[in-house]
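Standup notes
- DV: blocked on the single-chain target, sequence here:
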Amino acid sequence: MSVAAPNWRERASVIRPDGRAWIDGRPVNAASGATFEDCSAIDGRAITAVAAGDAADVDVAVAAARRAFESGDWSRAPLRERKRVLRRFAELVAQQRDELALLETLDVGKPIRESLAVDVPGAARCIEWFAETVDKQYGEIAPTDPGSIALITREPLGVVGAVVPWNYPLIISAWKIAPALAAGNSVVLKPAEQSPLTALVLARLATEAGLPDGVLNVVPGFGPTAGAALGRHLDVDKIAFTGSGEVGRHFLAYAGESNMKSVSLECGGKSPQVIFADAPDLDAAAACVALGIFYNQGETCNAGSRLLVDHRIADDFTAAVAREGEALQLGDPLDPTTAVGALVDRDQFERVSRYVQLGITEGAHVVSGGARVREDLGGYYFAPTVLAGATNAMRVAREEIFGPVLVSIPFSDEAEAVALANDSEFGLAAGVWTADLRRAHRVAAALRVGTVWVNTFDASDVTTPFGGMKRSGFGRDRSVHALEEYSQLKTTWLDLH
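- DV (later): unblocked, structure below
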């Protein structure tokens, strides 16, 4: 018996999500009673009123997190119990796929097919994977003299403040809270004001899974109020942040102004796609380059936004990428056939528009796109855009646009390709396309980035660490290395004499 496909438009018209904060195991209004209107990126309509948390709410949430941590109900729980709860949490996330996917798409404008196929399963997989790490981490014994034993163990930090962006709110929330909880910490999660809804559902599901009250709290609100209060809080032991470099610097300053809390940052990128003329399949490479920048409307921190291409094939390859972008179906994110949805809001649309105009002023020319489309839908939809005739000195080639805009820059040889790729303040990721295995190794080793993909782009798994170098930040999400971000080393020295 076949099951009819969901009518996402109909579901969107009747959904009424709870916008209250989640503190100490229950939904609560902001202490001030203030709310803000959460509007859909799809068409601008109001979805629900959300609690506008501020310093008072952060204080309450941090106090609840500290009580929970000190009680030991989670931080000192048997490892098998921690594992059981987190596995159940992952199961509930997977079971609530439709609700979470719809809220994600309504909030940020990404196509529903991607929310269903990537974002929700990715978050569930992340939580499940870290659940399995709980009882598989071992301590060490140092090689001391025979009369002593030195034990090296890892302990949870305490209270973690996680601040996540609006482009992948569900996935990046999971990247932060899953290892933090697996390590035994309590968490206060501050979602972006543009995308608070899935974070609130995650907190509800975690409590339903058996997470003790106070271990996971969610305080929605704005950066200068809730975010800054969390960053400056004297009883927060760590801030894990993903977002812009400007805000990342604020969190470093907040740590210095307060208790010198640990900070890990992921602050975006300007990732190069380096295309050599001997790439094994240039058509496949063009399709992958297009997805690498136009997927998620270009609102991806590691988006391949700089196309560095051998000058001998530059015009033809750039045109092929432009054709791939034009072929992607752009439209209503609630239509399951849509591949490119809406930008998150008017501010982001204006930012992307300004950069395209700046690129033209600087001397680049538009190969495809370059303008707003589908105004009839009510949101802010921007055509996949390719700029050619650019140089690496242009602002459009140096600054993160965070939209569906690709800048094409030719190079003459391998040395210039590497120099151009590294000539950036960012160092998050890169793609290298070549059939020459030796060249692939040489170039990958020379690139100053956290991830290099060879003959592919944006392939990922929770088993591999994600993070950058230079202005892209420090610290790592995903993999066992993420657990190091949420724990601290202790040495216990025993004298046996």
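- Follow-up: The chain has two domains: 8-267+472-491, 272-461.
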